[in-house]
Every structure is written in structure tokens, then in C-alpha cells.
Amino acid sequence: xxxxxxxxxxxxxxxxxxxxxxxxxxxxxxxxxxxxxxxxxxxxxxxxxxxxxxxxxxxxxxxxxxxxxxxxxxxxxxxxxxxxxxxxxxxxxxxxxxxxxxxxxxxxxxxxxxxxxxxxxxxxxxxxxxxxxxxxxxxxxxxxxxxxxxxxxxxxxxxxxxxxxxxxxxxxxxxxxxxxxxxxxxxxxxxxxxxxxxxxxxxxxxxxxxxxxxxxxxxxxxxxxxxxxxxxxxxxxxxxxxxxxxxxxxxxxxxxxxxxxxxxxxxxx
Amino acid sequence: xxxxxxxxxxxxxxxxxxxxxxxxxxxxxxxxxxxxxxxxxxxxxxxxxxxxxxxxxxxxxxxxxxxxxxxxxxxxxxxxxxxxxxxxxxxxxxxxxxxxxxxxxxxxxxxxxxxxxxxxxxxxxxxxxxxxxxxxxxxxxxxxxxxxxxxxxxxxxxxxxxxxxxxxxxxxxxxxxxxxxxxxxxxxxx
Lengths: 269, 190
Description:
The structure holds two protein chains of two kinds.
Chain A lengths: L7 H26 L3 H20 L4 H22 L4 H22 L8 H5 L7 H20 L1 H9 L1 H6 L4 H20 L3 H16 L6 H26 L3 H23 L3
Helix pairs in contact in A: 1-6, 1-9, 1-10, 1-11, 2-3, 2-4, 2-9, 2-10, 3-4, 3-9, 6-9, 9-10, 10-11, 10-12, 11-12
Chain B lengths: L14 E4 L13 H6 L14 H13 L15 H13 L5 E5 L7 H14 L4 E5 L3 H5 L4 E6 L1 E6 H11 L4 H9 L9
Parallel strand pairs in B: 1-2, 2-3
Antiparallel strand pairs in B: 4-5
Helix pairs in contact in B: 2-3, 3-4
């Protein structure tokens, strides 16, 4: 299996996996802490509209997705701040709308015959080098934003009401978290696909939370766990000739279930 | 009894606040010290991390509220009473002159309740406290004034209430509430 590493597409896949791990570990921690997993799901599926539009207008794939995902994040943030009690309904609408727009644009694209499934379930083995650079830049933006605003992000995530009472600009930090979630979705879309990205945002964090006493440590452990999931999944998919994205998620969910059962067996409470 | 007037509030940051529900978000990966440090937010912008001085300040507040030994522990590992002390320490980070507490003992066992009020009594030496509570009997041992609020506000001194309990020779909460409500009946109802 070692001779595999000499193939450029395998090298690209591993590098993509590395970039994805950083983003999903750091932002997944914020998403889970703020209980906005459903928001992330909405943004991810809305991003499909961007994929369709990028194809139709022959725009660069990642650029179209980024713009659409950011737009979805801002609209979701608006609804959350304006109608916090109805946010699940609005996300449901956006979720379906984004997907529908994407499918319609793909329908309208003349002579389009690329495998649609690769955007839904990812294709980490075909990530081009140009995408890797873009993913690296987005990772840089995410890491910079999170480390820079770490104390306030922590305060808002832990007790939003209290932060607001203390005069923290919670609107800014809500929008920031949503925007960073959108960037993470874009990073992960190529490798695990927009349907499966939710698994990588949540499963590593759920496990990592148990071993860490701070948000920062949870981020680091989650990133490392994601990396393990992705590499194991890739090996699995190579060995049995299966779809890479689905294999990664299957590995993650299998470990999640094992962890859940072990925790139930050995937990004191 | 005043029928009109105005309330003037000093600069916003001099008021500390202890919210009611401190049991939410128990699984959150955060240490007790970090919870207290979040009390600094809003006063001024800070980036990357808290300073050494701020961490020392947070430890001092934890010492004041009697939970310094748990500083490095995860917040979820603490009992309800201990967590309440952490939340009070957090409210002290902004060095308030007036501390507002909303049902500070609602989720705590009777022993813990007494301890929280003992702590508040100590804090009261240096700052003013306003406590919202349904537990009138407990409040009476510690409060200096009682305000009954039901659309209108009625002020009572605690001495009135104590006189009442002396008259009957025992403490009766039903009568006390009636007294505070302003519809005292003859004798004890309980």
C-alpha cells in the first residue's frame, strides 16, 4: 500500500484530508457548542445551489460554492437574529431551496454529464491542486479568526444571554460563526460532499468533548480524530473499491457507535 | 409609601448580574476558571487570550466565593451549589457596585441554599445586593429590606416581618405572605 503514496492524486487526497480535518475540527467544535448543527446542514445543502450556478455560468467550482454558501450563511444569520424561535422552519426552507436551485441549474447546463453524485458524496481522490491552494487559504482564514476572537467566541458560545447582557456584540459573533461554518462547508464539499459534511462536523467533537476541558483542546482533538477518520476511510475505500466519502463517514460512524457503547458501559453516571 | 418617582442607574458596567438557570450547557468543555474569565467580556475588546493578571483576578474571585479548589475542573463536574458560586464569581469580575441575583438558590438543596445566602451576606459588606427570590423564609434571615412586587411595588422593612413572628410566638410563612400582601387577618392561618 506504501507505493500508493507516490501517486500525485493520492498525495492530493491526503493533503485535502489534512485541510478538511483542520476546518471541521475547529468549526465543528463551535457548531456543536452553539447547538447549530442544523444551521450547518442548511448552509451545506444550500451550497448546492452554488454548485449548480457555477456549472451553468462556467465559473470556478469553489468560487461559486463559496459565494452561495456565504449568502446562505448571512440569510440564516438574519433569520436567527430576527426570528430565533422559527429558525428551524426557515432553515428547512433554505435547505430545500438551495438544493432545488442547484438541480435546476444543472438541468439547464447544456451537455452536462459530470457525475452529480460526486458533489453530494464527495470525491477526495479527484481534488485538483488548484482547489488545495484555495482550501489552504480558507483554513488560514478560519484559524486566524478563531484564535483572534477566541475569548469572546468562548463567552458567546458558553452563555450567549450573559454575553449579551455584558454588552458583547453577539450579532457580530453569530454572523462570524455562520460565515466560518460556510467556509468549512466549502472546504469539505469536495472530499466528503455536502450531505456527509455534517458527520465530520459532529462526530469528532462528540468524542473529543469527553477528553478535553476547553474549547481549544476540543478543536485540536477533533481535528486529529477527523484526520484519522479520513485516512482510515481512504484506506478502506481503496481496499474494497468503495466511494471514498461514504467510506470516511462509515468509519467515523462505526467509531462513534463503538465509543457510545463503551461510554455507556463504563460511565459512572 | 411613594406613588411616583424615578429610578436612576449608574454606569452600566458597575452592575453585576447572576442569571437564574446555571444548569444549562453542563457538557460544555470549559474549566471553572474560564467560566469566570468570560465575566470580563463586554468591558473591553481582547484578542487571542486572557492576560496573567486577569487569570489571577479570576482566581481571587473563586477564592472569595469558596470554590478556588475547582478552578481547573470542568464546569459540568461541579454540584449545583458549587456551580452557582462559580457564576457569582463570574459576575464579580466586572467589579460591580450592585449585584442583581435572579433566584440564586432555585436549583440547590437546603444546605447549599443556606451557604449561598451566607456567601451573599459576606459579599454584602462590600457591595449592594438585590435578590429576586420566592423563598421568603430564607430571605428574611439575610435581607435588610423586602420589596413585594405584583404590578406595583411595596417596600417592607424586615423588622415588621420579625415583629410579626414574635407576636405569634412562632414563624408562619402563610401569615407573613399575607402581611406583605397587605391583607393581614387576625391570628395565624397555618
